[in-house]
TrEMBL record:
Keywords of the record: Membrane, Transmembrane, Transmembrane helix
Organism from which the protein derives: Chryseobacterium candidae
InterPro entries: NA-bd_OB-fold
Taxonomic lineage of the native organism: Bacteria, Pseudomonadati, Bacteroidota, Flavobacteriia, Flavobacteriales
Protein name stated in the entry: DUF1449 domain-containing protein
Spans traversing the lipid bilayer: 6-31, 81-102, 108-132
Length: 218
């Protein structure tokens, strides 16, 4: 394969978006390595939340018995353990490689190449799950940056989604200078709006769910 052939396939109508995204991923990791800084990563869902779900520390903290199908799917992919940036980068790379070599060896019409991207993406996510699974113990060790679960009691933070009754939402709390996102419920079931300051007053350690109430400020 010549360099010109590589460029033709990499920037074909089917692969251009994937190639650009992969290039941005390379830039992200180079920036992270050189500066030691990490860029916030967000997961957005319209299911069971009134607002976007953000994952500032690159981890998604989900309870063990969340009724949301979306959360079950994320847990199936081990995104409650594996940092989102690792997962997305590897999934993107696998999808890009599959699409690149498929279009190189079997030239397809643009519409067919685009349709095949969807099963390639699903296959890429499943393969990423398998590849990263042996690293789960390592990711569990770094997941909470050494903080024990009971250390969150009494801490204050900001809601990232509205909560009410038994609905599960997200809360951002800082451990030192490190932001973390936790799964929370309203302690008394009352509605608390997105962006409100809340305090953690109780928890279910086995489910990793924390109960919050509005912060009282004088």
């Amino acid at each position: 394969m010549t360099f010109q052939e590589f460029l033709n396939v990499a920037f074909s109508p089917v692969n251009t978006v994937l190639t650009v995204l992969l290039g941005l991923s390379v830039v992200y990791w180079l920036f992270t390595i050189l500066t030691g800084l990490d860029i916030d990563v967000g997961i957005h869902s319209d299911l069971d939340t009134d607002a976007d779900i953000d994952v500032p520390d690159g981890h998604l903290h989900t309870p063990d018995h969340d009724p949301s199908a979306w959360m079950h799917f994320l847990k199936f992919l081990n995104l409650d353990i594996v940092p989102v940036t690792y997962f997305l980068t590897l999934s993107l790379l696998i999808t890009w490689l599959g699409s690149f070599y498929l279009n190189y060896f079997i030239p397809l019409p643009t519409w067919a190449g685009i349709l095949i991207l969807f099963p390639l993406m699903i296959g890429g996510m499943l393969l990423t799950r398998i590849i990263l699974k042996p690293l789960n113990p390592f990711f569990k060790e770094i997941n909470h940056k050494g903080e024990l679960s009971y250390a969150f009691l009494g801490r204050e933070g900001r809601l990232k989604s509205s909560i009410q009754d038994d609905k599960i939402g997200m809360m951002e709390v800082f451990i030192g200078s490190d932001p973390m996102t936790l799964m929370v419920r309203s302690k008394d079931g009352s509605r608390i709006e997105h962006g409100s300051r809340v305090m953690i007053v109780d928890e279910e350690p086995e489910k990793r769910i924390y109960y919050v109430q509005r912060s009282i400020r004088y």
